[in-house]
């Protein structure tokens, strides 16, 4: 994807950015979480100086340091996208909210060179912040993003699953999914690497579908080699549950991005009427050795979206694996009335705080 000219009149074009706050603004251990956030004011003083007093206060109100850091990064990205593509000073690049509470930039004089409309959405999870923006166009295009980290609640997830089972764990979140999605998350087959020449038989697939407990050995039937000889394979149920859990988070990420694209919350009355089906889980690069790596893995682009029993054809969605634990979703819909998705999604660009954000802000401030 080619980014739009920062002074031209492009559009509509999509920008997709990531900022990793985990290595940023290291704060020495303090007596309490509140003290750590207070110390952030000193450690991140340069970055905070790029925000208005009210924005600084909104960052420093958080109880946990990681949340304050992600809030700071979110504010910086919003200012950056407006300044870079609307030819306005950083100090004047404060976004406003539309009727649904989504951040937008509406130029005072759209006839001036570089004065384009911007609609955008941000997400943050486990230290990572994403921003997706649509530059130019009619101002009626919609975009949404969400991030999930499958390891962030690993301990809590496993505790519930070991006590109540995987199906009960899914049902705990069932109010935000359609019935077909809940059934898919519980029972749809999961892809496992069994070894060369092995293929599960029907009853073997059923055993994996019904699996909802960890720390078990599953004896399943499989066919081996060109002779298709029947054999028994032992599968660790932990692998099955983890594959199902990762699929749950993939579906959560997609649904959240879609709902955020519309500007409504996960309490929207139509949630049960939205179905995102045939979801494949993007795989991360198995060769990654760095636990904090955000190396791009597989990108899944084909989803079947149903809303109120009718196919949705004007929304594009993508789900990208980052590192071993993260997934980021993007959703885009053209202006109302367009029959086909004309907005093109691209790669996520990981920004460098000093070179891509603060240095640009200093020049344009």
From TrEMBL:
Q: Give start and end of each 4'-phosphopantetheinyl transferase N-terminal domain.
A: 45-133
The record's GO molecular-function terms, alphabetically, read:
holo-[acyl-carrier-protein] synthase activity; magnesium ion binding
Q: Which Enzyme Commission numbers does its entry carry?
A: 2.7.8.7
Q: Which Gene3D superfamilies match?
A: 4'-phosphopantetheinyl transferase domain (3.90.470.20)
Keywords recorded for this protein, A-Z: Transferase
InterPro entries named among the record's database cross-references:
4-PPantetheinyl_Trfase_dom_sf, AASDHPPT_N, P-Pant_transferase_sf
GO CC term, one of those recorded: cytosol
Domain of life of the organism encoding this protein: Eukaryota
Q: Which Pfam families match?
A: AASDHPPT_N
EC top class named in words:
transferase
The alphabetized list of GO BP terms reads: lysine biosynthetic process via aminoadipic acid
**Protein known as:** holo-[acyl-carrier-protein] synthase
Q: Which organism is it from?
A: Amorphotheca resinae ATCC 22711
């Amino acid at each position: 994807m080619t980014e739009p000219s920062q002074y031209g009149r492009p559009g509509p074009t999509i920008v997709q950015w990531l900022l990793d706050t985990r290595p940023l603004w290291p704060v020495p251990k303090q007596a309490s979480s509140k003290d750590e956030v207070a110390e952030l004011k000193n450690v991140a003083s340069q970055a905070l100086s790029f925000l208005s007093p009210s924005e600084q206060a909104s960052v420093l109100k958080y109880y946990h340091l990681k949340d304050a850091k992600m809030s700071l990064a979110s504010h910086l990205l919003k200012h950056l996208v407006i300044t870079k593509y609307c030819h306005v000073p950083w100090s004047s690049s404060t976004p406003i909210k539309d009727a649904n509470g989504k951040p937008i930039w509406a130029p005072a004089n759209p006839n001036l060179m570089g004065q384009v409309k911007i609609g955008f959405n941000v997400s943050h999870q486990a230290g990572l912040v994403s921003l997706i923006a649509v530059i130019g166009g009619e101002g009626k295009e919609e975009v949404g993003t969400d991030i999930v980290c499958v390891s962030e609640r690993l301990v809590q997830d496993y505790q519930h699953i070991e006590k109540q089972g995987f199906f009960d764990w899914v049902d705990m979140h069932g109010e935000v999914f359609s019935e077909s999605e809940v059934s898919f998350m519980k029972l749809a087959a999961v892809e496992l690497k069994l070894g060369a020449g092995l293929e599960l038989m029907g009853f073997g697939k059923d055993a994996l579908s019904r699996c909802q407990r960890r720390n078990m050995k599953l004896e399943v039937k499989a066919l081996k080699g060109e002779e298709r000889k029947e054999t028994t394979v032992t599968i660790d149920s932990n692998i099955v549950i983890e594959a199902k859990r990762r699929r749950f988070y993939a579906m959560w990420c997609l649904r959240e991005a879609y709902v955020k694209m519309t500007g409504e919350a996960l309490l929207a009355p139509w949630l049960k009427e939205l179905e995102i089906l045939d979801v494949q889980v993007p795989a991360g690069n198995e060769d990654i050795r760095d636990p904090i790596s955000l190396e791009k893995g597989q990108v899944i682009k084909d989803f079947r979206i149903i809303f109120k029993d009718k196919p949705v054809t004007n929304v594009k969605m993508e789900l990208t694996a980052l590192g071993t634990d993260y997934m980021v979703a993007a959703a885009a819909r053209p202006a109302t009335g367009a029959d086909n998705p004309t907005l093109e999604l691209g790669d996520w660009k990981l920004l460098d705080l000093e070179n891509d954000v603060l240095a640009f802000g200093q020049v344009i401030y």
